[in-house]
Amino acid sequence: MRKSINHANIKSFSESNSPKTRSVFKRMIRNSSVRIGGCIILFFILIAIFGPLIAPYDPTKLGVAKRLLSPTWDFPFGSDALGRDILTRVMFGARITLYIGIVSISIGLLSGLIIGIFAGYAGGWVQAVLMRSVDFLYTFPDILIAIGLVAFFGPSLTNTMIAVGISLIPYYTRVTYSVTLVERNKPYFEAAQAIGAGRIRLILRHLLPNIIPPIIVVGSLGFSAAVLSAAALSFLGLGAMPPTPEWGKMLAENRDYILLAPWVLLFPGLAIMLTVLGFNILGDGIRDLLDPRLRKDIR
Amino acid sequence: MANYIIRRIFVGLLTLLLTIIGISLLIHIVPGDPIDTFMGNEGGLESPEQIARIRRLLGLDLPLWMQPIVYLKNILAGDLGQSIFMVTPVAELLLSRLPATLSLAVFSLFIAIIIGLPFGFFAAYNRGTWIDNILMLVAVIGIAMPTFWMGLYFLLLFSLILDWLPVASGDYRSIFLPALTLGLTFSSVLARMTRSAMIEVFTEDFIRTARAKGLPETIVLYRHALKPAMISIVTIIAVTFGYLMGGVVIVENVFSWNGIGRLALEAIILRDYPIIQGFVLIFASIIILISILIDISYAWLDPRITYK
Amino acid sequence: MNIIKNNTYFNCSKVFWKIGVLITAILCLIANTVFAASDTIILARGEDSTTMDLHKTSRSVDYQVMDSIYGNLMALDLNGNVSPNYAEKMTVSDDGLTYRFTMREGVMCHDGTPFDAAAVKWNFDRATDPDIANPMASRYGDIAESYVEGNDYVLKLKSAFSALPAYAGEMPIMCPSSIQGDEVIPIGAGPWKFVSWDRGNEIILERNEDYVNYNPLVKNPGPPYMKRLIWKVIPEATARMAALKAGEVTFMEPSLPDAAALINSSEFKMDTAPLSAQKPYLGFTTGIAPFNDVRARRAIAHVINRQQIADIAFEGLVKPNYCPISPGLFGHNEEFCKKHAPEYDPEKAKSLLAELGYNSSNPLEIILQTGVSDGWGKTLEVIQQQLSDIGVKSSIEYTGWGEFRTSIQERNLATEGTPVVWMGGMSGVDPDYVVFLWTFPGGPQNQGIDDADLQQLLLDQRTTTGAARLEVLNDIQKFLLENAYEVLLVSPGWSFLTLYKSNVEGFQRKHVVIPIFNDVKIN
Lengths: 299, 308, 523
Hints:
The complex is a heterotrimer.
Chain A: H1 19-30, H2 32-54, H3 86-122, H4 124-139, H5 142-153, H6 157-184, H7 187-195, H8 199-235, H9 247-253, H10 263-290
Chain B: H1 2-24, H2 26-29, H3 34-41, H4 48-58, H5 66-76, H6 90-125, H7 130-144, H8 147-161, H9 176-202, H10 205-212, H11 217-255, H12 260-270, H13 273-301
Chain C: H1 9-31, E1 40-45, H2 60-69, E2 71-72, E3 75-76, E4 82-83, E5 87-92, E6 98-103, H3 117-127, E7 143-149, E8 152-157, H4 164-170, E9 172-173, E10 179-180, E11 183-184, E12 192-198, E13 202-207, E14 228-233, H5 237-245, E15 251-252, H6 256-262, E16 268-271, E17 278-284, H7 294-303, H8 306-313, E18 319-320, H9 334-340, H10 346-355, E19 365-371, H11 376-388, E20 393-399, H12 401-413, E21 420-427, H13 433-438, H14 452-463, H15 466-482, E22 487-488, E23 490-491, E24 498-501, E25 504-505, E26 508-509, E27 515-516, E28 521-522
Parallel strand pairs in C: 1-14, 1-15, 19-20, 19-21
Antiparallel strand pairs in C: 2-9, 3-4, 5-6, 6-8, 7-8, 10-11, 12-13, 13-14, 15-24, 16-24, 17-21, 17-22, 18-23, 25-28, 26-27
Helix pairs in contact in C: 7-10, 8-11, 14-15
């Protein structure tokens, strides 16, 4: 049984090819959360990439089916109010969702990374002002920030992605900042500094590799947050324009048909849920692995 | 202690001040002439007189540096400006709907707490067993479910099909569905955060010590686990409340709940700046108030904090 | 702080659960036992009024309520002809410049102040006061003199205005006591008295016990049968449907899908506003090539399949329309318009575009744009499909109305950029609105048409009446249709549905979708 928390026991990941890293990786694969989440995500990515190629119909052509058909053999997810096949649209929607996630996360993550590391290094009043502002923004629900941004700059898919990305910056900044602080105080870091390693080298060779694991976790969780936010924005009418088969938009468009054809809302909603679920489970799994405290038995 | 409280309030007010300045300059950050959008929403021909009237209402005829000052002065007098579309004082509009949003938020929080906390405790206590896994799976599914999707199906199920719950009676009964939707989503969030917090507490050395001393389990749980956990739980509830306020906007939309969230959304789409400014002001005030209260309760629970 | 006694916390959470279930059960029981009181009408709509000041708005959400409170000067019968109301007589001089409204005696406002010629004068003066900036000011005419003579209100115009009688039939008259300083307290002589307004939630009106009816559309000669009228705001269509089913509201505006599903139901009745006089239509940014060329506009017109739009976007609840002058208005003539409008002919469309240099390797790319309204987004999607069938690529911009109008204003004045086909709507009680739509220089939404002949025609239709006016109006419609400045779609187009339970009778809508409740009874 391991002893209680002692940060010095945590080896840094900067020794890249050590057996330690390989065993962590092995442990990851064996962990059921990572496996399940990973599978779901893999499935999602495959649909996103290949879906449009194998989809049975044209996602925007009207009238390929009778309107509001309930699920049948020809149209497994049924058809929507304009006579379009929902299965096809969900598959095309996967690609859009992937796109949204990647762009939003890139914007949020990269900005957050840069600002967070900068703040972690800056010290003094710059650091204080920066982190206070970030903390303040962090207390605002990110969905409201995203809504405000999109509503002002005009509704469109691009603006949605940017707005959601920006709304995630406070979150990523905080994570990066705290990791930066933690790493900076570690013996190996100070040692490297004492040897005379330049700042850039310190950041690139020592800081970044250690930031990566927590970043993967928050990246995964952030992806799911981005998908949910984008769907909410589309639902409120602030996101993708018709006839884009974005999942949140599909829910918004067919909202009035809920009594007549309840299944029309079912599949896009399930798609959102499963995708978000996958990323959450994966993120949780990796996080549990990385936090040694949770490996302990409590009894 | 008093010192600490004063300091926190001062910082809070400063933040609020900066927010106010930010808001009153908001109009100028947006591309395009703000006037155009208003004009767009009225039918009929817009005359130069109308445009001038709007300019005056928005305070746009003042120089840029004066606008935040005038806005601040007005706020202190209780005047938040007048809505362009509804030709009514913003303060009246917002304050008349604020109770609706707050009651929805509080009721949702209540539901989230009575479901989420026990779940979290239970899962943390049985950590690693199948109970924990099932509970956390349910929680993760709850988080993954889009709030508006859940809300629509609840509306379908409880109001349209089963006819159990009313939608529009406008009184206390119609709060149940939106609060349930919001509460369930955030109970999942709360459950997970509670679980992590309780696990942290359970793995502390002093817990092992207490057990080693032979104390009955219940006393271990209450006297030694609960108190340190309170700090985390207070944070968790506060954070959840913050997220909840965001979710409120969506839920108010789905259930037509007459709160400030719905008003703000309409105002954003219509570009009714006075209302948007007022909304951000009130929202920021609520958030700042909550964080001050949290910090104060921290200090009360753990006096060491005041020395920082 | 040991508040928890010797029970384990498992019991605590069990207690929580039990209490929670109990509360839920009680709430559900209570929920099932409340219905709207049977002497109250509750109408649920998607938006709230913005104001009760008659002279500060042009929005129909406002007019619907104000019409119940303030009476109309004259009335309009089923054919749109003017008939007496609060003014028992209206005489027009031969030159069309002097109008004399003889007011009925003894009519009182809700607060006891007189509803007389002086009140009417106050309305006309205030409505056209430049400081008030009334968006509907032009409907009162170009006023030279306005005075009271005994029981009569005399209006002298600078130029003849043949639409004035119809507008007089539509215009509500506020009692002067409504305006007290900066406050507006809605006081009129209409069938309903203002009680309260809970913003964003509901407006409560109660029956005017002294009301005497002169409106030819209403059968009930006295005060309304029902005691209270509540205008409730429920933005979500599904929520409105739930409220109607549960008996929480009496009337509501259904979404198109709900309406289509229930149109033949025996449980519900539906009013489809036959007098709506609405016309949704397509316009073009005529400054941006190729829409500065009539061939491009006609090409688009040739490809619009109205029936498909009516069936798919509006669930079959509307009919195709071809005339710039809406169905039901003076001058509407289906045959005439069909003759002059570009007929459905995709091949012709393709060849016209080819003449302009567009083909499969150089497709025409446009933007389809409009504001959010039930069915309008789908209309654009259907049109997008119809256009792509002839090789025109389009992207859709479907936004809030403010956004739309700002954008359109810019684009209508632009000479470069992506050409836009936009969808708008217009309605009214008189074809005079063609002036608003096409006068040059235009207003924010419409850039107007810089054609001297058309502008003269627009003025002429104001100074002519009867057959002469009909001819002028026909010339105007011919011009608009042959040059494809307007491509008409369907009618009605928005807010035209009212759904209610079968046990309610006596509901009707008069012109421009204004509801009247005087005859309503709930059985």
